[in-house]
């Protein structure tokens, strides 16, 4: 029987009970690296929004968004503890490593989820609060509990959870959802499949052992390379749209165009090179650059709106 059909971690007796967890174990449950990316993109959305936002409101809102992202990570780790124990890059996480009991992690995640939504709603507005609540639910329930174990489109649809932060940040400042925030959402949404599928090409054996139906395991590596190229062909021009609509300045437009061209070049290499170590190397290069691709244009956008560097 595939692990994908086994009971989730919080139903397994061996993972329930008291733990001797340290504060650092609970911090690890929050997935701090993912949290930092969420805060960064939310801040970009917040600063790119029109009007003036009170600094205290902005800081409290960013704190709430960070806590909400961490809560999502904790809930994800609870449910995925069984497959995390199998995969090399995740088996030392606090729950599969036995440092945190799943029941405690579940309570931790639920409490932080409620706290983050309430704080964001009260500090800014309930549009932003509702978006944060929807993001937590989408990641913890729709993606983690359903999509991840049932469809090779898990990353495509589930990518919405990671794409919401700039929209939430924009809503903090404006109390609304606009086309500008939808474009920022769309960039991250379209970026997610080539980013994660590059990793999936490298780690396909581990995903197979864990019973996760990632694209390379279900449709094959060649189909995955084609999908990566298609999404990147959409992403390259999409990344320039904020400049076209006036949300980003000339510096943003130049960086987005260069970064998009480079991202496309790496995707073409993944599509072309299909055998041996060279194929893995091409996938690693795309995965590594994809992180830089997301950071650079958003950093320029943040600088343009924070320091008045637009020209």
UniProtKB/TrEMBL annotation:
Report any one BP term from Gene Ontology: heme O biosynthetic process
| Enzyme Commission code | 2.5.1.141
Taxonomically, the superkingdom here is Bacteria
Topology of this chain in the membrane: Multi-pass membrane protein
**Pathway participation:** Porphyrin-containing compound metabolism; heme O biosynthesis; heme O from protoheme: step 1/1
Name a GO CC annotation attached to this entry: plasma membrane
Its subcellular locations are: Cell membrane
Provide the GO MF annotations for this entry.
Answer: protoheme IX farnesyltransferase activity
Q: Which InterPro entries match?
A: Protohaem_IX_farnesylTrfase, UbiA_prenyltransferase, UbiA_prenylTrfase_CS, UbiA_sf
Reaction(s) this enzyme catalyzes, per UniProt: heme b + (2E,6E)-farnesyl diphosphate + H2O = Fe(II)-heme o + diphosphate
Transmembrane segment boundaries: 34-53, 59-79, 100-120, 126-147, 154-173, 179-202, 228-245, 251-271, 283-303
> Gene3D superfamilies annotated for this entry?
UbiA prenyltransferase (1.10.357.140)
Query: What are the UniProt keywords, alphabetically?
Result: Cell membrane, Heme biosynthesis, Membrane, Transferase, Transmembrane, Transmembrane helix
Q: What does this protein do?
A: Converts heme B (protoheme IX) to heme O by substitution of the vinyl group on carbon 2 of heme B porphyrin ring with a hydroxyethyl farnesyl side group.
Instruction: Report the PANTHER family cross-referenced here.
Output: 4-HYDROXYBENZOATE SOLANESYLTRANSFERASE (PTHR43448:SF7), PROTOHEME IX FARNESYLTRANSFERASE, MITOCHONDRIAL (PTHR43448)
Q: What else is known?
A: Carbon 2 of the heme B porphyrin ring is defined according to the Fischer nomenclature.
What family is this?
Answer: Belongs to the UbiA prenyltransferase family. Protoheme IX farnesyltransferase subfamily.
What protein is this chain from?
A: Protoheme IX farnesyltransferase
Organism the protein comes from: Lichenifustis flavocetrariae
